[in-house]
Amino acid sequence: MRAGQWRERCTKWCYDIVEEARFDDQKYLDSWPERFPNVTVLEHKGANLARWNCMNYELQLDNGSVSVDGLPLIFYHFNSFRIVNRWIYDVDFVDWDLGKSLSPELMRFLFGTYLVEIKSTWDWIKKEAPGLRLGLTNLRKSPAGFTELLRRMRRRELLYSVRSSLFY
Question: Which of 9, 53, 93, 124 is the most exposed place for a label (fewest CB within 10 A)?
Fold first, then answer.
């Protein structure tokens, strides 16, 4: 399977449901190292740190750098990061116990840095395509509703940003 075939498969079926040979856009890639001799699996602990694996490592924040079991963090996979509105962000803490795996300082550093980039990109998009409507949740029409969002904020299940400060 080459990239074109992978894209076709993902277009036909790409769900957050685990099945034997498929899961989201990832499971299709499992056979690539055996099928393609030039494909290598990146095994550096600091690559692809994510909500589903961060609890397996010792994470440290020191002078603006994150280490993963003593190795530098290369990139964090911000999977399931949802912008609820301009100041509320759902990072799916509950399902993965992120609040227990990451210290408040590390959470603010990782997600705060990401939010700065998202906001910068948002501003660039608005400048380049002023007529484009960016899809934010209308809190009054949200399936969860405003009351549910407040409850989740009180339980520290959501991130929220007020005047460039990040809280959870």
Answer: 124
Token pair in block for residue 16: 């957050």
Residue 59 CB contacts under 8 Å (≥ 6 apart), including other chains: 49, 66, 67, 68, 73, 101, 102, 103, 106
Q: How far apart are CA 18 and CA 15, in angstroms?
A: 8
Using a cut of 0.70, tell me whether the model's pTM lies above it: no
Residue-level pLDDT at 46? 94
CB-based contact 68:104 (threshold 8 Å) = no
Q: What is the largest CA-CA distance in the chain?
A: 53
Number of H helices, E strands in the chain: 6, 9
CB proximity list for 40: less than 8 A, separation 6 or greater: 33
Q: Give per-residue burial for 124-137: e unless 16+ CB within 10 Å, then b.
A: eeeeeeeeeeeeeb
Query: Does residue 81 carry a pLDDT above 80?
Result: no
Between 56 and 140, residue with greater pLDDT: 56
* Best CA proximity match to 25, nearest among 15, 35, 40: 15
Handedness of CA 86, 83, 96, 53 (dihedral sign): negative
